[in-house]
Amino acid sequence: MVVVKRDGRKAEFDTNKIIEAVQKAFKDVDGELTADAKSKSKEIAQAVVALDRDPISVEEIQDFVETKLMASKRKDVAKAYIIYRNDRTKIREKNMELMKTIKEKLTASNVQNQNANIDEKSFGGRVGEASDAVLKQYALDNCMSEMAKNNHLNNEIYIHDLNSYAIGMHNCLSIPFDKLLANGFNTRQTDVRPAQSVNTAFQLVAVIFQLQSLQQFGGVSATHLDWTMVPYVRKSFWKHFKVGLKYCNGREEPDDSRFDLERTIEDDAYRVADDAYTYAMDMTTKEVYQAVEGLYHNLNTLQSRSGNQLPFTSINYGTCTLPEGRMVIKALLDVSIKGIGKLHKTSIFPCGIFQCMKGVNRAPGDPNYDLYRLALRSTAQRLYPNYANVDWTGNAGYDRNDPKTYFSTMGCRTANGWDINGFGQLKDGRGNICPVTIILPTLAMKVKTDMISKYGIETIREDESHLIDRFIGYLDQKIHEAKDMLLERFKWICSQSPDSAKFMYENGVMEGYIPEEGIVSALKHGTLGVGQIGLAETLQILIGCDHTTEEGMEVAKRIEKLFHDRCAEFKEEYKLNFGVYLSPAENLCYTSMKKFKEKYGIIPNVSDKDFFTNSTHVPVWVDMTPIEKIDIESQLTGYSSAGCITYVELNGSVKNNIDALETIVNYAMDKDIPYFAINVPNDMCMECGYTDEIGDKCPMCGSKEIRRLRRVTGYLTGDYKTAFNKGKQQEVEMRVKHKTFK
What we know:
By secondary structure, this protein is of the alpha/beta class. Strand 17 (about 680-685) and strand 18 form a beta hairpin. The model has no long low-confidence stretch (mean pLDDT about 90).
């Protein structure tokens, strides 16, 4: 007698398999294997043999066993058998789906562009995507509670980077470069000496970015790179000055014991020899420029994470008024404007972030105002830098004399707020440990459909306040569940060995690590982000308008206040840095909408597109001025403590109107926007290098090979038509340019 298995393979019939399955069902019910169970199982096995079907399928056998058990007096055993069979079916189907996904990833036959910075077609990308599929499933099945798993699968609370959940990685980090460059650091194979020149320092910045990116799954940043580089500019200047004294002035080189690291390069002590001073200044300026160019090229060419991804790097700068810091800032901006490579392409990484600070660079007469203007020119041409508001009220309590406490951010928007565990506003050596994102439209639609089935649509239309109250109550429940999900993951991350990230812990890259206390001693200084997506669509579901209206803004503030208040309560209760995170949702904007449509269909103004609006943003298709958009979003950014961003969309003509650009950025800073970015078209002909807003073909050479660079989340990442997912592509194409001012 031959049995045909589900995959088509054939095997000899074995009565023992039937006997074992039936006896298991009896034992599950009775708690032990009785004589009746043994007798009944053998009876059913013999009945299958008596069918005399050759061949017979596995499904036919199991159907027959179910029928025999249901016909017996032991309906409870029949139920146990059916449940077991269904559970096995679910596992089998899940494994089949997983294998299908792995095959798609390994062959790149279904490229999703979930992360615009990953080349899913490359060898490294394919291996990474396939292994990620396995790790994600493992995390869902083994690393979290059923509550967390169900929230993720039901499209209510999204768990970011599931593949990294399984192995216990944290998200991102602001690197303490001051310490690492001054003291040196250890790697697996060797140790690295302290930097002795600005060129070496910039090379080591790239190396450290690379090394740290392998210890985590998110971005890495420098919080005040201009200040960090001051001592190394001085060291380089001293070396060049000694050479100048010897060859320009014919004097003996001074001993290095005479070098004073506290002396600026404009100190009168250096001016005693004009020729040597001029030579040293020229050579130092040249070295700084070459070092910065090296940094830009390294960060755009040195792949990490199995060769499929560049590190997500960000550099904050703009506040150092010392001559060395100003030299570094100018070089960073000049190189950004110049572009990289033979075609002078816009640099994807690092994400430049100019730190705006009153009395330093905001107004004419400020010592770094000229560099602010240069930053605006760079933004108009290259989209970078973005702008961080050092004077943001959310960063109250920072030390004006300590750049390590100035407001800084990751390019995507992740930021470190006040640390409840002793570091205050210190940014270096801290980062986001893990985020989740609450998918607001799913919650709103669930509440609304439940109320419609209970009360009817007319009742809801007559009294929207009842619907809003019910939604707020359900959201409150989900915020608490999000907190529990973050605590679960935080504990899992803290259970990892420090050997899992030796570079980070042994070198103090994440500050606060005390070996005797375990890695929680460092991780507790990071943030736990409660994120959100789809505020605009949620308001449409609840009240039929978004937060561009007074009615919508009133409800929006109520929602955001709940997020803010709950995170503040959690922070005090658990002594962990819970914060409101206005999620980037690069991939989630598409996948969450896809799941929403599968359940609720197409709803006008809600799901009639392929993406949800990110966090609290004004929908990209709404036509308004930049000032109006800032006015609206600035009413909500203050509720966020773990990171947010505001954008405006401008046309290419802004390159010729830097004054207008300055007006917009200043207005955003004055409206207490913490992190601000400007989107301008950045199209580039791949044949001749012409860069501007380009139609179907290049106006200079006629080529149709055009790279269309657009921003995603906070970073720039390749041609949006090939690097972005379907939803993000549509979002880019629906963006309305803010052309006029009021």
